[in-house]
């Protein structure tokens, strides 16, 4: 029997409940009528409502494999699956089986795109064995092409490889042309328009020749694929329901994909918050969510949610104060019934070091008062802002995990091993090949290039390795090298045994290249453990490249689930999450908003929303840190320097009354009596985190 007004929806408020069941025919569980947009403010239960909707569908008999669920990160998607599963298990009296496995089409746009592209590759003239380049690989390839074209000589001040990639990516994601993008977004590169045009053409050709796809291609090809009506129908027909969280951060390609999959909008549900749009710098456009209702006929139905269940009234008032001064009008009216006496705090400290000390003191106090470390988070604009804090945490033996900065994959040794695997998968991938070959002593870029050229023409590129022009010093290692690659190609090792095979080959090189080889070796073993969670080499490579585990993350190690650790995260990576206590670093002009932008007003507005996102992560306590002096690390053009800073312009005098002001340390400082974490033993994991952090920072 179908469950319609079941108890599992009891916890929801009226609007949430109507969003869960909206448009779903209770007899057939198909979506009838108009598509659905849930647009609502932070903490109003958008994600929770979406999870309930998924659960509702499953409980009522929809095949989970016919649900496409897209979220902004793999972590967020996994969390959604977990929640949906919990709800439906409860609803069905604890009887559901392996729903986690069944909701196979939950993930990021990029991850889902990659899987669909492999399924349909041949139909769109793509080789299904393509490899995926992460941003760094893409920048490397851009660099190779730049060199080949002779654009890279330093005296000509041609844009750097990463600037070139940003410009290219911007064109792709906004579907605008170079002469639209350059004057507005990269004005200092305008004089290079002709060269950039040429470069991008050559870059695209190089990708095709090598059968590699970059992140943007995954969306581009996907959009192209579904612009073919027959394919769109076929792919769209695989899913009865398509649901998207954080819709405000999608770009034009993503919205055109959704529209092509579900042209009438039937079965389509998107949720988001226009006030939290923070990815315009990557081509996302808040127009997507605003234009969503009108993209269909009849227009999409809109449900708004107004009660915030996350934050105290004081935190919400402060966050509303900040966003209320925005140029655009966000029409939401958020309220909370979690009243409190405690206002959020603006904490004035002298510098980075004091900022770190203050936070550590408070974190420990919270912990003594019974709040776990996991319930607390320190948020920052860019990854390197947490340097001083990491030092202080390490000194005081407080375990932490950093999200959104260095990724597990970023350390050199992990990249090496992955490159071997990738190259074995696709020997035409020049970036991978370059990296792998240069692991051999005596092989530098020039000889690597010669070998690659030699392979390029051959029908059997790996076969051609045997008589490749190798430098004399490399000869003794060459045979073993070729043997390893051939074994990998032939797949005589069973996944994930392939990684162990590579590790055994790589170990002597690791010893030769790194002093801390044993720490790195432990990481590689860790990598094998991670790999065993993936069904195949190809799935592992795809998902790891698209959304690598953080420097330490839940997936990265089994023990982590039970350990307590402090969350360190960029604001972007904290999207959708919540913590009892939140500290935001460097809430000063120059950092928020950053002085590295072009100073255009849209950019400033995006920074305001960023602060809003940070503040609305907090449930009970919020500290905004204001160092008088903060240290800016070397952006190429700026160098390292101290700057004197003032409270961010987003908190002008008019709204200062919504905060409490603190100066720290207090004017008359007593003897410092550093607390330590007491009964929590120092765990190995944090040593590993630090090891990873160190190795990554030095060697990437
Ligand atoms: P964000 O904009 O930050 O992504 P959101 O709108 O997705 O936020 P959720 O994360 O879904 O909000 O919910 C915020 C918090 O409120 C969660 O802890 C959730 O469990 C809780 N919550 C949501 N709805 C209700 C409800 N009806 N009753 C009690 N708690 C609720
Ligand atoms: Mg959410």
Present the secondary structure layout.
Blueprint: H1 14-21, E1 36-39, H2 46-59, E2 67-70, H3 74-91, H4 99-102, E3 106-107, H5 109-120, E4 131-133, H6 135-148, H7 161-174, H8 178-185, H9 193-210, E5 212-214, H10 215-226, H11 229-236, E6 241-244, H12 252-261, E7 268-272, H13 287-291, E8 301-303, H14 313-324, E9 345-349, H15 352-368, E10 376-380, H16 387-395, E11 400-403, H17 412-425, H18 430-437, H19 445-456, H20 461-464, H21 475-490, H22 497-513, H23 517-531, H24 537-546, E12 566-570, E13 579-584, H25 601-615, E14 618-627, E15 629-635, E16 639-644, H26 653-656, E17 660-663, H27 684-699
Parallel strand pairs: 1-7, 1-8, 2-3, 2-6, 4-5, 6-7, 9-14, 9-17, 10-12, 10-13, 11-12, 13-14
Antiparallel strand pairs: 15-16
Bound molecules: adenosine-5'-triphosphate and magnesium ion (MG).
Magnesium ion is lined by residues 46-47, 576.
Walk me through this protein's architecture.
There is one protein chain. This protein has 700 residues and is α/β, with parallel strands linked by helices. 45% of the residues lie in helices and 11% in strands. It has 27 helices and 17 strands. The chain has a seven-stranded parallel sheet, covered by helices on one side. Strands 3-2-6-7-1-8 form a six-stranded parallel sheet. It has a two-stranded parallel ribbon with strand order 4-5. The longest helix has 18 residues, at 74-91. The chain is globular and about 75 Å long. The structure holds adenosine-5'-triphosphate and magnesium ion. This is DNA 3'-5' helicase.
């Amino acid at each position: 029997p179908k469950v319609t007004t079941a108890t599992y929806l009891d916890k929801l408020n009226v609007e949430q409940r109507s969003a869960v069941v909206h448009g779903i025919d209770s007899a057939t569980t198909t979506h009838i009528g108009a598509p659905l947009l849930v647009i609502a403010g932070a903490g109003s239960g958008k994600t929770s409502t979406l999870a309930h909707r998924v659960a509702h569908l499953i409980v009522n008999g929809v095949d989970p494999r016919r649900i496409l669920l897209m979220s902004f990160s793999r972590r967020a998607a996994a969390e959604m699956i977990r929640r949906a599963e919990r709800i439906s298990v409860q609803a069905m009296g604890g009887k559901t089986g392996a729903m986690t496995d069944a909701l196979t089409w939950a993930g990021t746009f990029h991850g889902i795109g990659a899987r669909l592209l492999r399924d349909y590759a041949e139909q769109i003239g793509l080789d299904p064995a393509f490899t995926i380049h992460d941003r760094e690989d893409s920048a490397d390839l851009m660099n190779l092409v730049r060199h080949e074209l002779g654009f890279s000589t330093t005296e000509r001040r041609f844009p750097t490889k990463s600037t070139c990639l940003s410009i290219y990516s911007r064109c792709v994601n906004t579907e605008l042309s170079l002469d639209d993008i350059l004057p507005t977004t990269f004005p200092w590169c305008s004089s290079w328009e002709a060269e950039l045009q040429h470069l991008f053409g050559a870059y695209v050709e190089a990708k095709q020749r090598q059968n590699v796809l970059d992140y943007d291609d995954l969306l581009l090809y996907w959009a192209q694929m579904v612009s073919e009506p027959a394919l769109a129908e076929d792919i769209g027909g695989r899913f009865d329901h398509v649901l998207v969280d954080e819709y405000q951060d999608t770009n034009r390609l993503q919205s055109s994909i959704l529209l092509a999959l579900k042209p009438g909008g039937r079965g389509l549900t998107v949720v988001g918050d226009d006030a939290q749009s923070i990815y315009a710098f990557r081509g996302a456009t808040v127009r997507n969510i605003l234009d969503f209702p009108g993209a269909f006929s009849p227009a999409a139905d809109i449900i708004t949610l107004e009660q915030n269940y996350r934050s105290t009234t004081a935190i919400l008032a402060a966050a509303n104060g900040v966003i209320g001064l925005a140029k655009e009008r966000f029409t939401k009216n958020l309220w909370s019934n979690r009243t409190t006496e405690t206002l959020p705090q603006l904490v004035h400290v002298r510098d980075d070091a004091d900022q770190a000390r203050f936070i550590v003191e408070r974190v420990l106090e919270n912990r003594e008062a019974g709040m776990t470390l996991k319930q607390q988070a320190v948020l920052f604009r860019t990854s390197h802002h947490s340097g001083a804090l990491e030092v202080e945490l390490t000194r005081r033996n407080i375990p932490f995990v950093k999200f959104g900065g260095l990724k597990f994959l970023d350390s050199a040794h992990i990249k090496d091993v992955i490159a071997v695997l990738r190259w074995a998968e696709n020997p035409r991938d020049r970036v991978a090949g370059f990296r792998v070959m240069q692991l051999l002593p005596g092989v530098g870029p020039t000889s690597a290039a010669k070998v690659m050229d030699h392979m390029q023409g051959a029908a059997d590129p790996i076969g051609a390795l045997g008589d490749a022009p190798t430098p004399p010093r490399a000869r003794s290692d060459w045979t073993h090298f070729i043997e390893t690659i051939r074994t990998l190609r032939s797949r005589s090792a069973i996944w994930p045994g392939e990684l162990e095979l590579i590790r055994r080959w790589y170990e002597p090189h690791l010893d030769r290249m790194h002093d801390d080889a044993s720490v790195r070796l432990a990481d590689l073993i860790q990598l094998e453990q991670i790999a065993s969670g993936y069904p195949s080499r190809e799935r592992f490579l795809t998902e790891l490249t698209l959304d690598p585990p953080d420097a330490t993350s839940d997936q990265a190690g089994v023990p982590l689930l039970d350990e307590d650790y402090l969350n360190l995260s960029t604001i972007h990576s904290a999207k959708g999450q919540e913590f009892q206590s939140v500290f935001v670093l460097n809430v000063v002009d120059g950092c928020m908003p950053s002085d590295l932008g072009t100073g255009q007003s849209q950019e400033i507005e995006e920074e305001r929303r960023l602060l809003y996102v940070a503040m609305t992560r907090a449930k009970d306590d919020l500290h905004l840190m204001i160092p008088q002096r903060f240290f800016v690390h070397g952006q190429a053009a700026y160098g390292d320097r101290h700057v004197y800073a003032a409270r961010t312009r987003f908190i002008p005098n008019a709204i200062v009354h919504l905060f409490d002001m603190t100066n720290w340390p207090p004017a008359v400082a007593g003897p410092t009596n550093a607390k330590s974490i007491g009964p929590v033993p120092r765990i190995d994991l944090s040593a590993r985190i630090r090891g990873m952090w160190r190795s990554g920072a030095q060697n990437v």
